[in-house]
Amino acid sequence: MWDPSETTLYSMMMFLFMETILEMYLTRRQISVYKQCKTVPRELQHVMNSDTFEKARVYGLDKAHYGMFKMIVCDIVILQLELYFGFMAMVWARSVEIAENIGLNPKSEIQVGCLFSLILNIIGIFKEMPFKIYGTFVLEEKHGFNKQTAGFFVKDQIKAFVVAQALTIPVAAAFIYIVQIGGQYFFIWLWAFVAVVSLVLITIYPVYIAPIFDKFRPLEDGELKKSIHDLASSVKFPLGQLFVVEGSKRSAHSNAYFTGLFGVKRIVLFDTLLVNKGLPADDPSLSESDKGKGCKNEEVLAVLAHELGHWKLGHVAKNIVIMQLQMFLIFLAFSKLFTYGPLYEAVGLPAGEKPILIGFMVIVMYVLAPYNTMISLAMTIMSRRFEYQADGFAQELGYADELGNALIKLQLDNLGFPVYDWMYSAWNHSHPTVLQRLERLKSLNKEGHKSKTQ
C-alpha cells in the first residue's frame, strides 16, 4: 500500500497525464478538421481564395503537429520524469551547496530561495530554447511570419531573462519573508503584496519595460490620429498618447491594445495592423510583400472600437477583480496546505524539510491543477462572452461592417484557418472563431436596422 507521499505523487502525475491526453485528443480532432476541410467556407468565398485557404490550412496543420510533439516531450516525458525523480528537490539541494560555496548563508531560506529561483529559471530557458528556436526559425519562417534575425533573437532572449530575474528574484525573497513573519494570517499580507506588485507592473510595463524589447513611435499626425481621438472622445475614453509599435521586426502578426489603469491611457497599434505599416507607400524600408497589407483607417477604427468596448463595458476591471480574487483563494489554499509534509516528500525532499517556494509551486502547479483547469475553462467561456459584447459595442457605434472587414483581413494576413472543431475551440480559444463573430455581427446589424425602423 502506498504511503501518503506516494499517493500524493502518483495522484499529481495521473491528473497531469490525463489532462495532457485530453488536450492531445482535442488537438487530434482539430487535425482531422485541417485534413478534411479543403474548400473555402461559403461566408468567406468572396474574400478568401483557394490559395490563401490552403496556406492557412497547412500553417494550422503544421502548428498542430508541432503542438502535439511539444506536449509529448514536455508534458508527458519531461514533466513526468521530473516529478518522479524529484527534480525540484535536486535543484534545491544544489542551491544549498552553491550558496555555501559562494559565501551565502545556506541556512537562510531567503538566500537559498533566491538562488533556487535563479537556477530553476536558467534550467527552464535551456528546456524551452529548442522549442522557441524551432517555432521561430522553422515553423514561423516557413510560413513567412518570422521577421527576427538570429542576432535580434539572441538579444531579445537575453533582455527577457535579465528583466525576468530583476522582477522575480526580489518578489521571491519578499514572498518567503512574508510567509515567515506573517503569522497565522500571512496569506492576507501575501495577497496584498502580490496585488500591489501586479498593479504596479501593469502600470509601469508599457512605459518602462515594453520599450526595452520593441521600438515605439508616436502615431503621425493625420486623418487616422484625429479619427482615433474623436472616437475616444465620443465614448469618454481618457486617451493620452497614441503609439505605433514596430512589431514587424519580430513577427508579421497584427494586434492593437490599450494600457493604463488610472487616469490617462495610451493606445498602441502594431505597425502590421496599418496599411503599409503606417508608412508612405514609397518608403524605402517597405518590402514588396508588406505593401498593401494592413487595415484601412475605418477598419483600424473598428478594431479600436472593439477594444474600447472592453473598457467601456468594464471587462478590464472585471478581469482584474477576478484575478485578485483568484490570487486570494490560491494563497488561502496555500496557507492551509503548505505544512503538510507528504507534499514535500512527494517531490523528493527529506522528511521535515519544507522550503516555502517549493511548497507554493507544488500546491499551485500540481495540487490545485484540477481547480486551475476548471477556472481556466470558465475564464475562456467568460472571455468569449466579453468578445461578443465588445463586438456589439463596436456595432452600436456603427462599425459592424468595418469590424467584419477587419476581422477578415486580419484572418487573411495572419493565415488564420477559419474552421475549427467545436470542442477544440471551446477548450482553447479565448475568442470566438472569425465565422462565429461575423455571424453575430450580421445578426446584430439586422437587429440594429430593425430597431431604427420601428
Automatic annotation (TrEMBL):
<feature type="domain" description="CAAX prenyl protease 1 N-terminal">
    <location>
        <begin position="30"/>
        <end position="215"/>
    </location>
</feature>
<dbReference type="GO" id="GO:0005789">
    <property type="term" value="C:endoplasmic reticulum membrane"/>
</dbReference>
<feature type="binding site">
    <location>
        <position position="306"/>
    </location>
    <ligand>
        <name>Zn(2+)</name>
    </ligand>
</feature>
<feature type="binding site">
    <location>
        <position position="387"/>
    </location>
    <ligand>
        <name>Zn(2+)</name>
    </ligand>
</feature>
<dbReference type="Pfam" id="PF01435">
    <property type="entry name" value="Peptidase_M48"/>
</dbReference>
<protein>
    <recommendedName>
        <fullName>CAAX prenyl protease</fullName>
        <ecNumber>3.4.24.84</ecNumber>
    </recommendedName>
</protein>
<comment type="similarity">
    <text>Belongs to the peptidase M48A family.</text>
</comment>
<keyword id="KW-0256">Endoplasmic reticulum</keyword>
<dbReference type="GO" id="GO:0071586">
    <property type="term" value="P:CAAX-box protein processing"/>
</dbReference>
<keyword id="KW-1133">Transmembrane helix</keyword>
<feature type="transmembrane region" description="Helical">
    <location>
        <begin position="7"/>
        <end position="26"/>
    </location>
</feature>
<dbReference type="InterPro" id="IPR027057">
    <property type="entry name" value="CAXX_Prtase_1"/>
</dbReference>
<dbReference type="GO" id="GO:0046872">
    <property type="term" value="F:metal ion binding"/>
</dbReference>
<keyword id="KW-0479">Metal-binding</keyword>
<keyword id="KW-0862">Zinc</keyword>
<comment type="function">
    <text>Proteolytically removes the C-terminal three residues of farnesylated proteins.</text>
</comment>
<feature type="transmembrane region" description="Helical">
    <location>
        <begin position="356"/>
        <end position="379"/>
    </location>
</feature>
<keyword id="KW-0472">Membrane</keyword>
<feature type="transmembrane region" description="Helical">
    <location>
        <begin position="72"/>
        <end position="90"/>
    </location>
</feature>
<keyword id="KW-0645">Protease</keyword>
<feature type="active site">
    <location>
        <position position="307"/>
    </location>
</feature>
<keyword id="KW-0812">Transmembrane</keyword>
<dbReference type="InterPro" id="IPR001915">
    <property type="entry name" value="Peptidase_M48"/>
</dbReference>
<feature type="binding site">
    <location>
        <position position="310"/>
    </location>
    <ligand>
        <name>Zn(2+)</name>
    </ligand>
</feature>
<feature type="transmembrane region" description="Helical">
    <location>
        <begin position="186"/>
        <end position="208"/>
    </location>
</feature>
<feature type="transmembrane region" description="Helical">
    <location>
        <begin position="160"/>
        <end position="180"/>
    </location>
</feature>
<feature type="transmembrane region" description="Helical">
    <location>
        <begin position="320"/>
        <end position="344"/>
    </location>
</feature>
<keyword id="KW-0378">Hydrolase</keyword>
<dbReference type="GO" id="GO:0004222">
    <property type="term" value="F:metalloendopeptidase activity"/>
</dbReference>
<feature type="active site" description="Proton donor">
    <location>
        <position position="391"/>
    </location>
</feature>
<keyword id="KW-0482">Metalloprotease</keyword>
<dbReference type="Pfam" id="PF16491">
    <property type="entry name" value="Peptidase_M48_N"/>
</dbReference>
<feature type="domain" description="Peptidase M48">
    <location>
        <begin position="218"/>
        <end position="443"/>
    </location>
</feature>
<feature type="transmembrane region" description="Helical">
    <location>
        <begin position="110"/>
        <end position="126"/>
    </location>
</feature>
<dbReference type="InterPro" id="IPR032456">
    <property type="entry name" value="Peptidase_M48_N"/>
</dbReference>
